[in-house]
Specification:
Blueprint: H1 2-6, E1 21-29, E2 32-40, E3 43-48, H2 58-68, E4 71-72, H3 74-79, E5 86-87
Parallel strand pairs: 4-5
Antiparallel strand pairs: 1-2, 2-3
Family: Belongs to the GMC oxidoreductase family.
Protein name: Choline dehydrogenase-like flavoprotein
GO molecular function, one term: flavin adenine dinucleotide binding
C-alpha cells in the first residue's frame, strides 16, 4: 500500500509522513474536523488541515479516536465525561469478528509445504457472550 499510494507522492509539499506517532483525537471548529492531535516522541502536537481531515486508523482505532473526540453515541460519551460534538449512534457498533487471518513464517532451511499450508488454526472471540467465533 505504501509503495503504491504514498511513495509516489512523498515529494508533494502538502504531504508529511510521520512514523511512531499516535493520533489521540480530532480537533474541531464547531462540527467541522480541522485537524488532529498526535503524540510524537512523548510530545503532544497538533496538525491542522487546509481542506479536509481524513481519519483512517483501522477498524478498531478509527471508532476509538472518533469517540474520544466526541463523535459517537451521545449517552455513552457523556457517561465517560466526553463532550458530545456529534451524536452518531453507529460509531463503535456493528464490529464483526474476522474468521481468518494470515501469518507467514520463514524457515531456517527449506521445508516442503505440508497439506494446505494451514497446520494450525486459532478461533478467537472478541466478545465472550458469543457462542462461537
Amino acid at each position: 500500500m505504501f509503495g503504491s499510494y504514498v511513495r509516489p507522492l512523498l515529494s508533494q509539499p502538502n504531504l508529511t509522513v510521520l512514523t511512531d506517532a499516535l493520533v489521540t483525537r480530532l480537533v474541531f471548529n464547531g462540527k467541522r474536523a480541522t485537524g488532529v492531535k498526535v503524540l510524537v516522541d512523548g510530545q503532544m502536537r497538533q496538525f491542522t488541515a487546509r481542506c479536509e481531515t481524513v481519519l483512517s486508523l483501522g477498524a478498531i482505532n478509527t471508532p476509538k479516536v472518533l469517540m474520544q473526540s466526541g463523535v459517537g453515541p451521545g449517552d455513552e460519551l457523556k457517561a465517560h465525561g466526553i463532550p458530545v460534538v456529534q451524536h452518531l449512534p453507529g460509531v463503535g457498533r456493528n464490529h464483526q469478528d474476522h474468521i481468518a487471518f494470515g501469518c507467514t513464517w520463514a524457515y531456517r532451511k527449506p521445508e516442503a509445504v505440508g497439506g494446505t499450508g494451514c497446520e494450525a488454526k486459532l478461533y478467537w472471540k472478541s466478545d465472550a457472550r458469543l457462542s462461537q467465533p
